[in-house]
């Protein structure tokens, strides 16, 4: 198999565009939402991302060459690899943003630095789970119902990804609707553009043109320091300090399920590649993915990597091993040279947000398309938890904008309840939302299948997590909002609730008869 073929060029444009969108989202949201200074984004996070992308892309290109040599074939396509899209949004909104808010409430001198350290812990923890998952991937897949895993992610995709960018689409309709139309035609309408141009590339080019015509570009506030060299620097000291702090426990309810989801998702993509004719060793492919994420954390990035969906598509394009090598080189150049700042200056998020909205729609739809139709109620249950967590985000942001900068009191709760909004329930859903979505959806799946003992065991797991303060327990922060509380007292009502629910399911075989009753 040759190192480069014509199809590698097409594959490179598609994969590089996908990775570029992730980098632009990381750059834009880290600065705009988290408030990170450019020195931190360009000097630590992006070089760390470059290391992870270089390590993974080169490994999967080498792995494809090895498989070609072993099989005597010349049509092996390397596994696509890049920054994990769902983790970017989950870690930004469920780890970095709450960490910054908690640090601000505690009077920290540099809240954004605290948020970065929390992100390092989350990324490192995900890497450990991904690497360890290489050895237990099959067991993880069997233990967790697909509806539980997919609906957990769908709740985040529907709200923090899709709704946020849907709002932004209609705030800039000329750019947003036009680019969304291109993607809908290309990916849902299954049409090809003349000249073989990828639909994503056409959407971004159109978005850039319309952004400059409507005044969205150049993007204000982007600091252009000139092209330079920003080498990756190990951050072992910062990582060790962060691991010794409270972040690992505080965000364990996000790190663990997302790590498991990344393992299962990568494994499914390896299975997809096998269905397309390329049978890669599962253990080494998953282990390399974990090593890439660990490398990201050790060099300053807060965002895990993953084996991407879409291998059959790249293979059908004619891509082989070269597209992965080209992607590694291009992404490394962007991240280490400071030129991403110029791309961010010229290409506003609006130009590429249709791609992110499309990803959110696909992830949400997958929760129903890839699970048995009978499990749809379980998928809805898992999705609703994410909607509740998003409501907490909207309410908290609204109150801060309105100037409510003190701890929430009984009068505030009562005022919301008069409007039929139960703020305590909203905050309870926000804390450990990924755990609670996964547990409730999994329990529903087993109830639907009348597997009462398994349903009860999932509820017992929920009671244990509540007792540890990792789910539903919250404490009002001095300057407004709610944070996680790692103690039993605040979580007692929910722990008891899950115990009662477990008891109901455990007794169901003796108290009910199989039938179609309601």
Tally of individual helices:
21
User: Would you count the extended β strands for me?
Assistant: 4
SSE order:
HHEHHHHHHHHHEHHHHHHHHHEEH
Strand order of the largest sheet: 1-2
Principal-axis shape: globular
- Share of residues in strands: under 5%
Mean pLDDT, all residues: 86
Catalogue the unreliable spans. none
Distance between the termini: 61 Å
Radius of gyration: 23 Å
Describe the biggest sheet? 2 strands, antiparallel
Specify the structural class.
mainly alpha
What's the number of structural domains?
2
Percentage of helical residues?
A: over 70%
Topology (elements, then pairings):
Elements: H1 6-32, H2 38-71, E1 81-83, H3 85-105, H4 111-143, H5 146-171, H6 173-188, H7 199-214, H8 236-244, H9 247-250, H10 252-275, H11 282-298, E2 305-307, H12 311-317, H13 322-337, H14 340-346, H15 349-369, H16 376-401, H17 410-418, H18 423-430, H19 433-448, H20 452-467, E3 474-476, E4 482-484, H21 488-511
Antiparallel strand pairs: 1-2, 3-4
Protein traits:
518 residues; 73% helix; two-stranded antiparallel ribbon; 21 helices; two-stranded antiparallel sheet; 2 domains; mainly alpha
């Amino acid at each position: 198999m040759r190192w480069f073929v014509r199809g590698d060029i097409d594959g490179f444009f598609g994969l590089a565009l996908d990775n570029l969108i992730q980098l632009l989202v990381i750059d834009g949201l880290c600065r705009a939402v988290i408030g990170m200074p450019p020195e931190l984004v360009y000097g630590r996070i992006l070089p760390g991302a470059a290391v992870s992308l270089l390590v993974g892309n080169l490994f999967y290109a080498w792995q494809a060459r090895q498989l070609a040599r072993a099989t005597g074939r010349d049509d092996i396509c390397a596994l696509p690899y890049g920054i994990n899209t769902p983790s970017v949004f989950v870690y930004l909104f469920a780890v970095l943003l709450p960490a910054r808010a908690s640090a601000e409430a505690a009077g920290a001198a540099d809240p954004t630095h605290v948020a970065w350290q929390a992100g390092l812990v989350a990324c490192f923890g995900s890497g450990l789970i991904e690497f360890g998952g290489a050895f237990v991937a099959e067991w993880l897949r069997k233990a967790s119902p697909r509806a539980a895993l997919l609906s957990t992610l769908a709740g985040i995709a529907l709200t923090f990804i899709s709704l946020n960018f849907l709002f932004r689409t209609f705030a800039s309709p000329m750019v947003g609707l036009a680019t969304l139309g291109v993607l809908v035609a290309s990916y849902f309408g299954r049409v090809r553009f003349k000249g073989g141009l990828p639909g994503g590339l056409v959407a971004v080019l159109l978005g850039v043109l319309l952004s400059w015509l409507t005044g969205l570009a150049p993007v204000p506030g982007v600091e252009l320091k000139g092209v330079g060299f920003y080498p990756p620097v190990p951050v072992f000291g910062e990582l060790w300090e962060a691991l010794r702090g409270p972040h690992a426990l505080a965000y364990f309810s996000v790190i663990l399920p997302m790590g498991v989801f990344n393992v299962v998702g990568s494994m499914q993509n390896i299975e997809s590649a096998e269905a397309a004719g390329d049978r890669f060793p599962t253990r080494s492919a998953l282990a390399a993915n974990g090593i890439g994420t660990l490398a990201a954390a050790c060099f300053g990035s807060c965002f895990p990597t993953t084996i991407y969906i879409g291998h059959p598509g790249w293979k059908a394009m004619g891509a082989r091993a070269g597209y992965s090598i080209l992607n590694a080189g291009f992404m490394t150049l962007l991240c280490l040279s400071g030129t991403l700042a110029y791309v961010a200056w010229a290409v506003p998020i609006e130009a590429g947000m249709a791609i992110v909205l499309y990803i959110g729609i696909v992830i949400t739809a997958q929760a129903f398309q890839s699970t048995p139709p009978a499990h749809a109620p379980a998928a809805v249950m898992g999705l609703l938890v994410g909607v509740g967590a998003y409501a907490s985000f909207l309410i908290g942001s609204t109150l801060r904008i309105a100037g409510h900068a003190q701890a929430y009191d009984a009068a505030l709760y009562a005022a919301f309840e008069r409007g039929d909004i139960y703020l305590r329930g909203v905050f309870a859903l926000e804390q450990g939302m990924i755990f609670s979505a996964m547990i409730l959806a999994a329990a529903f799946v087993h109830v639907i299948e009348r597997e009462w003992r398994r349903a009860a065991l999932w509820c017992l797991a929920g009671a244990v997590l509540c007792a540890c303060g990792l789910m539903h327990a919250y404490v009002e922060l001095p300057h407004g909002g709610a944070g996680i509380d790692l103690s039993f007292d605040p979580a007692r009502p929910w722990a008891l609730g899950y115990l009662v629910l477990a008891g109901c399911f455990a007794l169901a075989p003796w108290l009910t008869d199989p039938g179609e009753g309601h």
